[in-house]
Amino acid sequence: MDLTPSADQRDLRAGVRDFLAGRWTPDRLRAASASPSGSAAGSAGLDPDDWKALGELGVFALGLPEERGGAGLGLVDAAIVFEELGRALVPGPLTATFLAAGLVPGADDGTSAVTALDLGDPTLVAEHLGSSAQVVLVDDGLWLLPADALAAVPLDAPLDPLTPVWRVTDPPEGGRLIGTGADAERWRTRAAVLTSALQVGVAQGALDLAVRYAKERVQFGRAVGSFQAVKHLLAESLARVDLARAATWTAALAVDGPADRPADGGAAEAVSSAKVLADDAAAANGRCCVQVHGGMGFTWEVAAHLYLKRAWLLETCWGGADEHARRLAATL
Amino acid sequence: MDLRLNDAELAFRDRLRDWLAGVLPELPPAPDRDDWPARRRYDTAWQRRLFDAGYAGVDWPAEHGGLGASPTEQLIFLEETARARAPYVGANFVGLLHAGPTLIVEGTDEQRARHLPRILRGEEVWCQGFSEPDAGSDLASLRTSAVRDGDEYVINGRKVWTSHAEVADFCELLVRTDPEAPRHKGITWLILPMDTPGVQVRPLRTVVGSSEFSELILDDVRVPAANRVGEENDGWRVAMVTFSFERGTAFIGDVVESGNILRETVAIARATPARGGGTLWDDAALRRDAGRLAAEVNGLWALIRKNVSEASAGMVPVQGASVFKLRFTESRQRIADLASHVLGRAALTLEEHVVEDRVNTLSFTIAAGTSQIQRNILAERALGLPKEPRWT
């Protein structure tokens, strides 16, 4: 039993972190999210070069076997990479494109973005539809549809300014069957783990930003981070992200293979636990980040809101915390 | 990363399960909560069984009579004994988890030879004399004085929150030997035999109604200088060694119990009729709360495995231990609340285990470093935030 990253996994994390730090700088994030009222399609369309760069880095093909151009790595390795993507607030249909690698041509190397639509959800909304070539419909099977075949309208002023969203106006029909009911279940499970990993990253990024500010900002002649009232908010944020990360790694390992008691229950319980804790960590840490910034935290220019808004977006993906809590309750 | 146990660990687990399955049905019923002599007999008899079976001092090095088990094997031991509902470490806590490990690292050969085998065999019970009425979270402000007189120390002062004091043979005692020195530099760690003249034990009644703790009144108590552990005035460092054993894996059994209470609560809710028909479990809010707490318990398991893995790799999981203490104690209180809410007006007697538990868990966020102290530790040591102005 070992729940610490191996040397290879630490290298993987450092490599992705370095790459993203050079590309997704605070200035770039600020520019990309510049227009609060801009239309979805206009303000935050994906740059195909960014997507290709992620593909070249191996982000999407990570889990494919080496003979198919991948790295043959497991879901926990993907979780490590996705935490970094979340921490850097990288936009795009990351989870869907990762899961589509090997199923949808062009997904694995980042030559095309693939989004997904969970038909189990009563409200059909798709992210990044305008930048995606294909959409995977996840129901009691997996169906592939060209993105422009979906009847959908972009929503103005998307909550997360880096994530344009489209409301689907007519229930989609047809498409090419690319996976069975079991494949769809597998998709949902893995998507929940990867979304949890993104949330852990969002939670960590929000904490990092808040801690940096608390060390710099002086009031009453002292750094505000020296006050226990502020310190304890940040300590709570740290506790949340540590717990969520351990739960997410555990879920990823449990999904990938046999484990001795991943949770009180099996892999499904471990996944639901991770999503509950990661959603909570991201949203609460985002809120903490805004609060610690005081009035500046309420301005568009400080990135605090970007973490919180991304957290609020991701908590709706692949089962919200309440939904996963109900699933856990059913196993008690 | 890998969640699987290796073959040796699986074999260790299976042997332990077999032994527990054989020995637990033979145990007498647990004694009454307030019968301290009976509790000592019960807890030490269990320790003797562990010793005879080769499971005493799981985390102690083999050269000092322990099992020398790896951190993962310690996790297995604590998890399996808790799942099998074996007796808790109880009266052996301070000896096995505090004083013994401290003597292993800091004691003299004579001190080790005298105490370690007896602790392992369940023949010697220890208590802790660290906190004082005016020195709680701010432990370094302790004032119980020890004045050197020939080859003895003469001790005067008061200690509080001393568990098992009525039945203890020895006390790990922190005293001030140099009142002039900076506060961390004038403290000494002593072994106090509890039958020394001048030691008075006064039980403190807790909110649970029982006397879990006592106050120690020390009046001209004479302790041989040979009972000193570490150098004179170096006791703060020795105490930090003691504490380093406290925040590791002590709560693993409690996490098992958390899951048990949660499942038992759900079973009661499923069986309890609700006003207007159906059962309490039909309440979506209750199910959601229970599900969130189940996520929390699973998260704590994951964190334990991460902490144990770090310990296996030779790291000291300081941050992980504080995060665990903080989250475990608070969620444990929420689980006790949930259980009481399900019982409703049946929860109005301390005779009900759930209610006693609800009251008892109030101590969890206070003992062994309050939640506020844990947050300070995380903020200052893990996040590097500036220290609060304080005495030095």
Structure description:
- The complex is a heterodimer of chains A (332) and B (392).
- With 332 residues, chain A is an alpha+beta fold.
- Chain A has a domain at 182-330: Butyryl-CoA Dehydrogenase, subunit A, domain 3 (Up-down Bundle), CATH 1.20.140.10.
- In chain A, 51% of the residues lie in helices and 10% in strands.
- Chain A is built from 11 helices and 9 strands.
- In chain A, the strands form 3 sheets. A 4-stranded mixed β-sheet of chain A has the order 1-3-4-7. Chain A has a 3-stranded antiparallel β-sheet with strand order 2-6-5, with no helix packed on it. Chain A has a two-stranded antiparallel sheet with strand order 8-9.
- In chain A, a hairpin with a 2-residue loop joins strand 8 and strand 9.
- In chain A, helix 5 (75-87) crosses helix 7 (181-216), helix 5 runs antiparallel to helix 8 and helix 7 packs antiparallel against helix 10.
- The longest helix of chain A has 36 residues, at 181-216.
- In chain B, the strands form 2 sheets. A 4-stranded mixed β-sheet of chain B has the order 1-4-5-8. In chain B, strands 2-3-7-6 form a 4-stranded antiparallel β-sheet, with no helix packed on it.
- Chain B contains 11 helices and 8 strands.
- With 392 residues, chain B is of the alpha+beta class.
- Chain B has helices at 7-23, 36-52, 71-83, 93-106, 109-120, 235-246, 252-271, 284-312, 318-343, 353-360, 371-382; strands at residues 126-129, 145-149, 152-163, 170-176, 187-193, 199-204, 213-224, 228-229.
- At the A-B interface, helix 7, strand 9, helix 8, helix 9 and helix 11 of A face helix 7, helix 8, helix 9 and helix 11 of B.
